[in-house]
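Anyone up for a design puzzle?
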């Protein structure tokens, strides 16, 4: 049972990336899934959440209008589309969910925004 993130990389300011969070060994089903990020030397910051039926989402103010969270039930994956990336978005991004009363998080994927 684990979460595996992918899709990070180096991108120029103004660019886009799509992160993926794939569930392995269990089904996301109706569980809410959150994205977090942590920049070097800073605390973990909540980024976005998508709830069970995928119709309800929420975002941190710093990413509203630039990031979009979605989920594909068939692929058992949650995505984070990130547009208009800025240097302040540079961080390790990871997803997390609660499964059978346990909090699961992945190892993260690095996003670096630099010219």
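Challenge accepted. My sequence:
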């Amino acid at each position: 049972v684990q979460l595996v993130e992918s899709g990070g990389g180096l991108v120029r300011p103004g660019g886009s990336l799509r992160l993926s969070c794939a569930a392995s060994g269990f089904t996301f089903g109706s569980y809410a899934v959150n994205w977090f990020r942590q920049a070097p030397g800073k605390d973990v910051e909540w980024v976005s959440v998508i709830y069970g039926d995928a119709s309800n989402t929420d975002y941190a103010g710093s990413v509203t209008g630039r990031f979009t969270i979605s989920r594909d039930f068939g692929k058992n994956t949650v995505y984070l589309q990130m547009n208009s990336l800025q240097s302040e978005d540079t961080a390790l991004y990871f997803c997390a969910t609660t499964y059978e009363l346990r909090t699961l998080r992945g190892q993260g994927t690095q996003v670096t925004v630099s010219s």
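A detail worth pointing out: The CA atoms of residues 30 and 111 lie 28 Å apart.
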